[in-house]
Amino acid sequence: MTGNHKDSTITRRRALAVTGGTVAAGGLAVAGYQSAFADTVADTEASASASATSTSTGSSCMTLMTSVTEGPYYLDGALVRKDITEGKNGVPLTLRLTVVDATDGCTPVSGAAVEIWHCDAWGYYSGYTTANPGGSAPAESEDGSTANDSTYLRGYQIANANGVVKFETIFPGWYTPRTCHIHLKVHTGGQKEDGTYEGGKVNYTGQLFFPDAAAEEIFTLEPYSKHSGSYTTLDNDMVYDGGGTSSGLLTLKAVHKADPSKGYKGSITLGVDPDAENTGAGGGGGGTPPSGDAPTGTPPSDAPSASASS
Q: What's the confidence (pLDDT) of residue 7?
């Protein structure tokens, strides 16, 4: 099943609070670019501690996350930073991800480096800004932001003592033939160096997914509505396997129930094996762009080098 999106602007609609599946979710983070992002340290630590306690006592948290393909748009050298937007326009999204050891009672994996990357509101990835997202969308250069075409919407965060990382980003758009998603890797054993994360190994490669109802709500808003065409729902996505939270389905909550444009907060607990090593090949259909081949865009000369794995 697919949905068709036509250009339209809706400034106030009913927001959806949606939840997902089988692995206990981490503490919810607060979204919204100004005051909603201003969590206190005490609140953050309290939420993280509560999350670690709940996950360590629930039998469902012994489930390892499903490893999937890293897709065609991975780049080495992402920056260690909390805010990865670089001025990209879109509905604010705060992610709180909790990394736990699913082989050891779901104890927090302190010091794990969580790396995420995703497309912008029109389906473009940094480093591949001329790759056709499918349907009809303005050129990436028309978005009016000051974002660096090599680095936007990519970044690392290092897990605290409770295994928690937090990112400030935007709700991703979509590109053919994929559903709305965020890519991620969990690294251990390396260290921060020259603004990025070096060494160690990848324990897990996965993708985070959004309930269809929430995505449909967002895609009627500006700037998403300028990308028209057919998008793929969860049931028909080549990567998402229907496993709920253990397959990467986020728990979402709207910042303002009456106005989804104010943003969302999303959370999930990532049950990983810190002793495992993952190549990034994973499962799923690969998430190739509309051409069916390699990305049609070429990374800028000053972009981090493309890599099949980290």
A: 38
Structure tokens at 128: 């591949």
Residue closest to 282 by CA, chosen among 240, 244, 236: 240
Coil/strand/helix, residue 286: coil
165 closest CA partner among 202, 113, 119:
113
Q: In angstroms, what is the C-alpha Rg of the chain?
A: 18
Distance separating alpha carbons of residues 81 and 195, to the nearest angstrom = 8
Other CB atoms within a 10 A radius of the CB of residue 139 amount to 10
Mean pLDDT of successive 10-residue stretches along the chain, which has 310 residues: 40 31 31 34 40 39 82 96 97 98 94 98 97 96 95 98 98 97 98 96 97 95 96 95 93 92 96 92 54 40 35
Say which residue the tokens 């033939």 belong to: 177
Which contiguous run of DSSP H or E holds residue 108? strand 107-108
Q: Where are the alpha helices (DSSP H) in the chain?
A: 41-57, 212-218
State the pTM of this model. Answer: 0.76
Residue 114 to residue 186: CA distance in whole angstroms: 5
DSSP 3-state of 146: coil
> What pLDDT shows up at residue 31?
30
Helix or strand or coil: residue 206?
A: strand
Q: What are phi and psi of 192, to 5 degrees?
A: -70, 130
DSSP-derived secondary structure letter, 30: P
pLDDT of residue 280: 84
CA-CA distance, 208 to 166, in Å (whole number)?
Answer: 14
Backbone angles phi, psi at 189, to 5 degrees: 90, -5
